[in-house]
Structure formats: structure tokens, C-alpha cells
Design goal:
The complex is a heterotrimer of chains A (about 120), B (about 350) and C (about 150).
Chain A (H helix, E strand, L loop, with lengths): L1 H21 L5 H17 L2 H9 L1 H4 L3 H18 L3 H5 L5 H17 L5
Helix pairs in contact in A: 2-5
Chain B lengths: L1 E3 L3 E17 L1 H4 L9 E2 L10 H19 L9 E5 L6 H10 L3 E3 L6 H14 L6 E7 L1 H8 L15 E2 L2 E8 L5 E7 L14 H20 L8 E4 L3 H14 L8 E3 H4 L11 E2 L1 H17 L5 E9 L3 H5 L6 E10 L5
Parallel strand pairs in B: 2-3, 4-5, 4-6, 7-12, 10-11, 10-13
Antiparallel strand pairs in B: 1-2, 2-8, 2-9, 6-8, 9-14, 13-14
Chain C lengths: L7 H4 L9 H29 L8 H18 L2 H8 L1 H4 L2 H14 L5 H8 L5 H25 L1
Helix pairs in contact in C: 2-3, 3-6, 6-7
InterPro entries (chain A): Spore_V_AE, SpoVA
Protein name (chain A): Stage V sporulation protein AE
Keywords (chain A): Membrane, Transmembrane, Transmembrane helix
């Protein structure tokens, strides 16, 4: 059942993205930045956590959750360190993802050649 | 006659295409005219280390094929005119570095094929060269990387997009008689009707093609019926109907006399969206397929209008629109009626 | 009757084939949903077979999806998936990984420092910049509001 909810939730977020691409004719870059900022704002209102509880990976896998994680880490460190904690915590939860992306991109570029 | 009307050149001397050379990649090899291309590769690296070197190899192949078919050496050529799509025209410049022929570099985006033929012809007509090579090239990966996105990026392209041809075409021009004669050319003006989408070059280029065709017919006092074929470079499936409607407004009916190189070089099932584009599109199709049809007697007089989108990603990001240009050259079967 | 040349950009829209809206949405839904379902599976895998809990399993899950996406990009398959799925492969974190890997791969010819490293964030940079900037803005607003009403 979890799988079905994740499937549908994630799928629906992608459909919203597809409509932004096809109907509003936004570029992929604009769609992605919109989603990330949306994630930050939704976490700002405390909504995205509930969505994650409900949809599991359907909420954590889309790029929207990246925005959520940025803010979440910032707020967590703000609780500990005060105002300065915002800056300390921003990459706290996203570190794994960004470091992985950098490392793997580098390794792949060493091993493979683009195919065109 | 020389300058005729506003923008056209009617050559005083009889000028001929003595030999042509073409080279292309795997998609073109599998296309409808693949068997007519002199040298083709099974992979778009063309046995080279990177994309840019592959494009240079294609231009070198096209030029050496033309030289060998014309029984000529590099030293027999007085002038090389060449261009490509890349920044600083690296393909043309680095190929010219190897050939050591006196060199004039050109940039006309995808209109370079006919621009180079027109200027080479004018220089020979004026006695500034006896034998010249006009060459151009393009490569799908170098174009994608420069104008759009990295080649392995998973972005979804719309159906209006075109597929840059991986290939090169070269011709040797002189006053020595041969079956294909170059009789006139029309220099285009830069047109810009406000298109901003780099994934829809056909719409951007149609006005330029229309302007050049209309001016050509007006300058030479001809009609569409005086030609067996009016061939555009790469308007593809989107730009071709727009061209026909733009010309209809001027009272010019292209009807069945029009075809487009971007629709000839690939079949629709080759995953090419709206068709082929790129400098090599018009060059490869004209120099292989069209010349063959002319030599076989199926075409007498052809107006080839190469269309170029003067796209600069930075200008588009600065909210500029995409200007375009089209240059036309008339090829005729020598010995036929004029 | 006005000329086609007037208001050309809006007039040529009639010549452009409309994207198959419904089909594109279905494809995006199926592929995006599938990627998220795979993510759910990975998450459960990490919870049951390793020492992760619900909160922390997200990290290795995202890292694994990024690895898979990078490999598919390197092999040359991801761009075809992307053409088919559109937002379905771009919106999940796999799209982020693909944008970085494809840029890194493309610029290998310019060397590791000036090519791969310098250009890696060419396509993904905007996501990180806007994510961080908006997190700061929202974070500061929330912090101030929490302090005012606590």
C-alpha cells in the first residue's frame, strides 16, 4: 500500500511539472527552481513534513523535498544555535545528496564518454 | 551582368562545379540519401577523441573527396572559403590550418553553404581566383553542446525541434566546364520577426527564406515556373508550410516546386523531430542528391536557398529574439536551355 | 486581412504541433511514480537490512537513486528516458543527478579542472542557488516570527 501511495503521489508531482513544461512552456530550469522554492515554502508552513509522513518516498524523491530539506536543516540548527544556526544547518540534511551527485558525476565523467 | 536588381549577382563568366565531396555520420548514412554520400561513419565520434575533432574530420573528408574526384591537389586551389556553426568557427579555421590554402572564413550559420558558394563564384567571376573550394560542416553533438544542452541531458525536446546534421559538404568551383553550372546568386538580408525559441528554428528562418526567394525572382525577372526546384536548407516540417504561406501573401505560389533539405536527409521514423538542420544539411543534400539528379537529367535549374538562424544563447538569455538570414544560389545543368 | 508577418510569433503557433498533453502527463505520471516507488523500496531495504530508521533512511535512498541515475547517464540511456518521460524523470532527484553528470561528462574534453569540475553545476546550479536563497529567506522569516510569538 505504501508503494501505491508513493507511486501516485510522486507521479502527480511529476504531472504538475509536465503541465508547467507543456502548457506554461517553462524551461526545465524554471520548473526545477520553482519546485525547490515551493518545497522551502511548504516546509516553512510545516506542511511538507505531513506530506512525507503520508507519501513516503513519493514526497522525498522529487526535487521539491530538496527545498524542504534545506529549510528543515536550517531550522533545526536555528533551534540549537539561534539565528546563526540558519546558515549552519542549510546543507545538514542535503549534504548526502549533493556530495553523492558531485562524486558520482566526477567518477562517471572519468569512466565514460558521452554518446550524443 | 554582375549586380542585378537589389540583391542578386548574375555571373558574367560561365562558372562550374568541377567536383563535390560529402561526408556524414551514422544517422545520415541510414537516411534516404546515405548511399550517395562519399564517406560515412558508424559513430558520431568519427574515430576521433572528441566531438569537435570529429567535425573537423568530416570537413577534411569532404574536401579531400572533392579534390580526389576532381583529380586535383591542394596546391591547385587558389582560395578556400569555409565556415561552420561553432564559436570562432573552429572547425573551418583548424581545417584551413592543415590545408594551408589561402583562406576566407565565413559565418552564416546554416546559410554558410550557399554563402560560401556565392562568394567563391563572385571572386572567380571577378578574376580574383581561378579555382576555389567552398566548404561547410556541422555536427549534432557540437551544436547541441554549444547552443542547447549537454548531449546526455534528459530534457524533453518538443516536436518543433530539428536535428543538426552531422556532416560536411565541399565543392570545387572554376571556369572549367562540367555538367553543373553556377549561374547566379542572391544575397539575403537579416530578418527577425520575433521568435525566441531555440527549439523552433524553422519558424525563425521561414521569413528569411521568403524574403530571399521573393527578391531573387524580382531581381532576375523570373517566376517559380522558371525553376524545376526551389530547395530550402533546413526549414523542416514546421518552417516549410510557413514559407509557402508567407510567399502566397506576395503572390508567389511555390506549390510542388518546393522541397526542403531537412526533410530529404532523414526519414520521419529516424527520431529527428521536425527534420534535419545545420550547415551540413543543405550542403550534403545539394552536393550529393541534387547534383546527381541534375547530372541524370531530372533537374535542369535549381534554386538552393540555404537558411541560417543566427542563434546566440547569450542573446536569447538577454531576452533578445533570433535573427535569421538566407542566401540563394542557382545551379543549372550545363548545355541545357537557359 | 493582416499579414502573417504581423504578430508573427503568435501567428506561427498554429503551425506548431501541439504537444500531446494527455499522453505526456500519463508518461510523466508513470515514470515519476515508478521512480518514487523504487525509492520507497530502497528506503524499506535500508531500514530493514541496515541500521537506518524512517528519518535517516532518506539519505542513502537519495544517494542510491543518484548513483543509478549517474550510471544511466554515463551509459547513454538517461537522455532517451528523459525524452520519453519529460518531467517524470526530470522532477525526481534523478533529474538533478542527470543534469550534473551530463554536464560533467560533456566537458571531459576540456580536462578535469577546467572542464569537468568547472562545468558540473552548469545545469544544476540554479536549483541549489534558489533552494539556498529561498531557505534563508523563509528561515529568517520563520525564525523571526517564532521569536516574536514565543
Amino acid at each position: 500500500m505504501d508503494y501505491l501511495i508513493a507511486f501516485v503521489a510522486g507521479g502527480l508531482i511529476c504531472v504538475i511539472g509536465q503541465l508547467l513544461l507543456d502548457v506554461l512552456k517553462l524551461t526545465p530550469a524554471h520548473v526545477m527552481t520553482t519546485f525547490v522554492v515551493a518545497g522551502t515554502i511548504l516546509d516553512g508552513f510545516g506542511i511538507y513534513d505531513k506530506f512525507i509522513e503520508f507519501a513516503g518516498a513519493g514526497a522525498t524523491v522529487p526535487i521539491v523535498s530538496f527545498g524542504h530539506s534545506l529549510l528543515h536543516g536550517a531550522m533545526h540548527q536555528a533551534d540549537v544555535h539561534g539565528f546563526i544556526g540558519i546558515g549552519i544547518g542549510i546543507f545538514e540534511l542535503t549534504s548526502a545528496g549533493i556530495s553523492a551527485a558531485i562524486l558520482f558525476s566526477f567518477i562517471i565523467a572519468l569512466i565514460f564518454k558521452p554518446k550524443g | 551582368m554582375k549586380l542585378t536588381g537589389k540583391q542578386s549577382w548574375v555571373f558574367e563568366h560561365k562558372l562550374y562545379v568541377n567536383a563535390e565531396g560529402t561526408a556524414a555520420g551514422p544517422k545520415e548514412k541510414e537516411g534516404p540519401i546515405g548511399h550517395l554520400i562519399d564517406k560515412t561513419y558508424d559513430e558520431i565520434h568519427c574515430d576521433q577523441k572528441n566531438w569537435e575533432m570529429a567535425e573537423r574530420k568530416l570537413m577534411e573528408d569532404a574536401i579531400s573527396s572533392a579534390l580526389s574526384k576532381g583529380n586535383l591537389q591542394k596546391s591547385d586551389i587558389d582560395l578556400l572559403l569555409a565556415g561552420d556553426l561553432l564559436n570562432q568557427n573552429v572547425t573551418a579555421n583548424y581545417v584551413a590550418r592543415e590545408l594551408k590554402i589561402p583562406f576566407l572564413c565565413l559565418f552564416g550559420a546554416c546559410s554558410t553553404s550557399m554563402e560560401s558558394v556565392a562568394i567563391a563564384s563572385a571572386l572567380i567571376d571577378g578574376g580574383f581566383a581561378n579555382r576555389a573550394i567552398a566548404a561547410t560542416s556541422s555536427h549534432n553533438a557540437t551544436a547541441e553542446r554549444q547552443f542547447r544542452n549537454p548531449t546526455e541531458y534528459g530534457g524533453q525536446k518538443p516536436d518543433t525541434a530539428t536535428s543538426t546534421v552531422t556532416g560536411s559538404g565541399a565543392v570545387i568551383i572554376s571556369q572549367e566546364p562540367s555538367p553543373i553550372q553556377i549561374t547566379s546568386a542572391t544575397v539575403g538580408r537579416v530578418m527577425d520577426l520575433g521568435i525566441t525559441d531555440p527549439f523552433d528554428m524553422g519558424s525563425a528562418m521561414a521569413p528569411a527564406a521568403a524574403d530571399t526567394i521573393k527578391q531573387h525572382l524580382e531581381d532576375l525577372g523570373r517566376t517559380v515556373d522558371d525553376y524545376d526546384l526551389i530547395l530550402t536548407g533546413d526549414l523542416s516540417g514546421i518552417g516549410s508550410p510557413i514559407l509557402k504561406d508567407l510567399l502566397k501573401e506576395e503572390g508567389i505560389q511555390l506549390g510542388r516546386k518546393h522541397d526542403d533539405c531537412g526533410l530529404i536527409i532523414y526519414t520521419p521514423d529516424q527520431n529527428v523531430f521536425a527534420g534535419g538542420s545545420g550547415c551540413a544539411c543543405s550542403a550534403v543534400v545539394t552536393f550529393s542528391h541534387i547534383f546527381q539528379e541534375m547530372k541524370a537529367g531530372n533537374l535542369q535549374r535549381v534554386l538552393v536557398v540555404a537558411t541560417g538562424a543566427l542563434l546566440s544563447p547569450m542573446m536569447v538569455q538577454q531576452k533578445e529574439t533570433i535573427p535569421t538570414i538566407a542566401h540563394g544560389v542557382v545551379f543549372e545543368r550545363a548545355g541545357g536551355e537557359s | 486581412m493582416s499579414s502573417l508577418k504581423e504578430n508573427y510569433p503568435s501567428k506561427v503557433k498554429t503551425y506548431q504541433p501541439k504537444p500531446p498533453y494527455v499522453l505526456n502527463c500519463i508518461k510523466a505520471f508513470l515514470v515519476g511514480g515508478l521512480i518514487c516507488a523504487i525509492g520507497e523500496g530502497l528506503q524499506n531495504f535500508y531500514i530493514h537490512f541496515f541500521d537506518f530508521n524512517e528519518k535517516t533512511a532518506g539519505n542513502p535512498t537519495v544517494a542510491t537513486l543518484i548513483l543509478i541515475s549517474s550510471i544511466l547517464t554515463g551509459i547513454g540511456i538517461y537522455d532517451r528516458i528523459g525524452q520519453f518521460a519529460g518531467a517524470g524523470s526530470a522532477v525526481p532527484v534523478t533529474g538533478f543527478a542527470n543534469s550534473m553528470t551530463s554536464a560533467a561528462l560533456e566537458h571531459r574534453s576540456e580536462g578535469l579542472v577546467l572542464g569537468v569540475a568547472t562545468n558540473m553545476f552548469k545545469l544544476a546550479g540554479n536549483v541549489i542557488v534558489f533552494g539556498v536563497v529561498s531557505a534563508y529567506v523563509v528561515g529568517i522569516i520563520r525564525y523571526v516570527l517564532e521569536k516574536m510569538f514565543s
